[in-house]
Write a structure and sequence with these properties.
The complex is a heterodimer.
Chain A (H helix, E strand, L loop, with lengths): L10 H17 L6 H8 L3 H17 L3 E6 L2 E6 L4 H8 L8 H13 L2 E2 H8 L4 H9 L3 E6 L7 E5 L1 H6 L13 H10 L6
Antiparallel strand pairs in A: 1-2, 3-5, 4-5
Helix pairs in contact in A: 1-3, 2-3, 5-7
Chain B lengths: L27 E3 L4 E3 H9 L10 H14 L5 H22 L26 H14 L25 H14 L15 H11 L5 E2 H4 L6 H16 L3 E6 L2 E6 L6
Antiparallel strand pairs in B: 1-2, 3-5, 4-5
Classes of the chains: A alpha+beta, B mainly alpha.
C-alpha cells in the first residue's frame, strides 16, 4: 500500500465492515458498485474492498449464501447447490432464448452499438422479430442513432444483459478468435452517432 | 476496440428527442398503474422503467381521444407527436402480448450480395459459452424488489428548519430560476449521485447558502436536482440545515453529529 492510499483498516473494523456490507447487500434487490458502496458508507474504496473480501470468505465458509460480482457491482445470491429446492418454492419461469435471439444478442453484445440493418447484414436473415423480443426482455435497448442518412437506431446491451449471463462487465464476454474477429471488423465498421 | 475483445465505441445522445423536435402536448393519463402525461409514459416505457403490460390501454387511448375532441384547433405538429407516442405504446403492448419465441415466425433470408455467408457462425463458440453462463446464472437466486413499497425511510433530521419552511424556500428559489430552454424529451438524463457528489464538493465545514451552490444561471431543473440531492444527503446524515442570512444554509454534517 503506497503513501497516497488511506491507512489500512484494522481487522476488527474490517469484520464490522463485512457485517455492515452484508446488511446492505442483503437488503438491496440489485447489484451495487464498489463506488456506490464507498459513497454511501462514506468509506474509502480499499477499505470497502477489504470488507467485501472478508464477507465473501465468511459466506463461502458457512451458510447457503454467496457474494458474487455481477453487472458492474456486487450482489448476494444463494449458492447453486440450493437451486433445485428453491425452484420448488419459487417456480421460476425459464427464460428461454431462441437460436435467432441468441445470434442477434451475441452480435449486438460484440458489435455494439449496432443497427438492425447491420445485424441482418451479418446474419443474412431479417432480424426485427428477434430484436424486438430482446428489447421486450430488457436485454438490449436503443442507445442513440447512427449519423448516416435515415439516422437508424443503434442498439446496445443493457445492465440486465450482464445480470442475465452473470457477467461482471461487458469486458467479460468470451473472447472471439482474433482471426475471426478481424473478418467481422471488416464486415461491420465501428459506428458513430 | 481490440481484435479479440469486444468494446464499446463512445455513444453520444442525439440532441433530438425521442419523439423528434416537437414536444407532445400534456395529455394526462390516470389509471392505477400509471399517473402522468403521455410523454412521460412513453419515456418510461422506452427506457424500460415501467412495465407496459401492467398499464391498461383504455385510459391511454381515452386520454388521447379526449385531447382530440377538446382541442379542435390543436397544433398539428404536437398532435402528430402525441400520435407517434401512442402508436409506439400500442405496438410495444401488442408485441408483448404476442406468443412466446416457440412460435416465432420463420425468418426471411435477405437477398443482399453483401451478406457474408456463414458469418454468424463466427459467434457460435461464444454463443455456446454464453448459454453455459446463462445456465449457471439460473441456478442462483436473488432478492426480489417487490417489497420495496414498504421500505423503511429514515427520518429527515433537519433540526431547526421546519418542513413547511423548507418547502416555502424551495418554492421561492424555483421562482427565481430561469426556464429550461429544452423540452423534457430533449434533455439528457442527469445522475442524482453525481449531483450529490458535486454538492458535497461545493460545501465545506462552513455554512453556505443553498442559493450559492446552484450554478450561476440556474434553471428549474438545476434547482430540482440540487434540492433532491440535498434531501438525499440529509437522509444519509452527510449534510445539515439551518436558517441563516434569510435563507436555508447547508454544511457537511459534523463528526459529532455523525
Amino acid at each position: 500500500m503506497n503513501a497516497s492510499e488511506p491507512t489500512s483498516v484494522p481487522m476488527k473494523a474490517q469484520l464490522d465492515m463485512a457485517d455492515t456490507l452484508f446488511a446492505v447487500l442483503f437488503a438491496l434487490p440489485q447489484p451495487i458498485s464498489l463506488e456506490g458502496l464507498a459513497d454511501t458508507l462514506d468509506m474509502p474504496q480499499p477499505a470497502v474492498r477489504g470488507g467485501l473480501e472478508k464477507l465473501k470468505q465468511k459466506l463461502e465458509s458457512d451458510g447457503p449464501l454467496q457474494l458474487i460480482e455481477i453487472q458492474d457491482g456486487f450482489q448476494i445470491s444463494t449458492q447453486p447447490q440450493y437451486a433445485d429446492v428453491l425452484a420448488r418454492f419459487l417456480k421460476p419461469e425459464p427464460q428461454k432464448l431462441s437460436r435467432s435471439m441468441m445470434e442477434s444478442l451475441a452480435i449486438i453484445a460484440y458489435r455494439q452499438p449496432i443497427t438492425l440493418g447491420e445485424i441482418e447484414h451479418i446474419r443474412g436473415v431479417m432480424s426485427d422479430y428477434s430484436l424486438r423480443a430482446l428489447v421486450e426482455r430488457g436485454l438490449v435497448h436503443d442507445v442513440g442513432r447512427k449519423s448516416t442518412p435515415g439516422r437508424p437506431i443503434l442498439y446496445g446491451t443493457t445492465p440486465g444483459f450482464l445480470h442475465h449471463f452473470k457477467l461482471k462487465g461487458i469486458d467479460e464476454l468470451p473472447a472471439l478468435d482474433a482471426t475471426q474477429d478481424e473478418t467481422l471488423v471488416n464486415l461491420v465498421q465501428p459506428n458513430t452517432i | 476496440m481490440t481484435a479479440s475483445r469486444p468494446g464499446l465505441s463512445k455513444v453520444e445522445r442525439t440532441p433530438v428527442g425521442a419523439l423528434g423536435l416537437v414536444e407532445p402536448p400534456p395529455i394526462v393519463i390516470e389509471c392505477d398503474a400509471f399517473s402522468g402525461t403521455l410523454a412521460t409514459l412513453f419515456l418510461c416505457v422506452r427506457e424500460s422503467r415501467l412495465n407496459l403490460m401492467e398499464v391498461p390501454l383504455f385510459p391511454i387511448c381515452r386520454a388521447y381521444f379526449e385531447y382530440l375532441l377538446n382541442s379542435p384547433l390543436a397544433n398539428l405538429n404536437e398532435s402528430a407527436t402525441a400520435l407517434a407516442a401512442l402508436a409506439y405504446l400500442l405496438e410495444r403492448k401488442a408485441w408483448g402480448l404476442l406468443p412466446n419465441e416457440d412460435e416465432a415466425p420463420e425468418e426471411t433470408e435477405l437477398e443482399s450480395p453483401l451478406a457474408l455467408e456463414g458469418s454468424v457462425g463466427l459467434f457460435e463458440e461464444s454463443i455456446q459459452t454464453l448459454l453455459v453462463y446463462k445456465d449457471n446464472r439460473e441456478r442462483l437466486f436473488f432478492r426480489s424488489n417487490r417489497d420495496l413499497a414498504d421500505a423503511f425511510q429514515p427520518e429527515l433530521d433537519i433540526a431547526s428548519v421546519s418542513v413547511s419552511e423548507l418547502a416555502e424556500y424551495f418554492k421561492s428559489i424555483l421562482e427565481k430560476a430561469m426556464p429550461d430552454l429544452n423540452p423534457p424529451a430533449m434533455r439528457s438524463r442527469r445522475n442524482l449521485a453525481e449531483v450529490m457528489r458535486e454538492l458535497l464538493v461545493k460545501m465545506g465545514s462552513e455554512w453556505v447558502l443553498f442559493l450559492e451552490v446552484l450554478p450561476e444561471r440556474f434553471t428549474t431543473e438545476d434547482v430540482v436536482y440540487c434540492f433532491l440531492a440535498m434531501l438525499e444527503l440529509i437522509k444519509l446524515g452527510q449534510v445539515q440545515l439551518d436558517f441563516r442570512d434569510g435563507g436555508i444554509a447547508i454544511a457537511r454534517a459534523s463528526n459529532e453529529r455523525k
